Amino acid sequence: SLTMTDTNGYLRQIPSSLKPTVIYFFQSTCPECTTQTPVVQRIYDRYGGRINLIGIARGESDEIAAAYSELHKLTFPVVSDETRRFYNRYATSWVPRIYFCQGDTIA
Questions:
Q1: Closest by alpha carbon to 56, among 79, 40, 27, 22?
Q2: Which end of the chain has a smaller Cβ tally under 10 Å, C or N?
Q3: In this predicted model, what pLDDT tens digit does every residue of 43-53 receive, in sequence order?
Q4: Is 28 helix (H, G, I), strand (E, B) or coil?
Q5: CB of 51 within 8 A of CB of 20?
Q6: Which sign, positive or negative, has the C-alpha torsion 7, 70, 56, 59?
Q7: What's the pTM value of the predicted model, to 2 decimals?
Q8: Edge-to-edge strand order for the sheet containing 78-81?
Q9: Most distant CA atoms of the chain, gap in Å
Q10: Could you read off the pLDDT of 16-75 as tens digits, one per residue?
Q11: Are 54 and 77 in contact (CB under 8 A)?
C-alpha cells in the first residue's frame, strides 16, 4: 500500500484494507476524464458508505487536483500524483482508469 495526502490535507492509505476500494486515475486536461468524472461521483454518492473511493490526479500538482475537485464538486477524496509514483506502479496506460481493490489485491 501507499500513503498519500489528499487535497484537504488528510492522509489516505491506498488501498485501504477495511473496505473495498475504487481507485480513479484522471487528468484535468483529459476530455474522457471530464465525461467519466460525474459517473464516478454518482458511484460514490450511491455506494460511498460501503466502499472507499479515491481520485488520483495523474501528473498534476495539489493545486490543479484541488481546482479540478472543486470545479466538478467532487465529494470523494482526491490526491495529486505529480511525479506519477502511484500511477506508474499500477497503471502505465491512458486515463481515465478505474481499479477495484480488496486488501492488497488490485484488479
A1: 79
A2: C
A3: 999 998 888 89
A4: coil
A5: yes
A6: negative
A7: 0.83
A8: 78-81, 52-58, 21-26, 97-102, 105-106
A9: 33
A10: 667 888 989 999 999 999 999 999 999 999 998 888 899 999 999 999 999 999 999 999
A11: yes
**E-assigned strands of 1-107?**
2-5, 11-14, 21-26, 52-58, 78-81, 97-102, 105-106
Give the distance, in angstroms, between the CA of residue 19 and the centroid of all CA atoms in the same chain.
15
Of the candidates 17, 21, 19, 5, the one whose C-alpha atom is nearest the C-alpha of residue 78 is 5
Nearest to 84 by CA among 75, 76, 94: 94
E strand or H helix at 106: strand 105-106
User: From CA 29, how far away is CA 32, in angstroms rounded?
Assistant: 9
- Residue 34's nearest CA partner among 70, 60, 81, 72 is 72
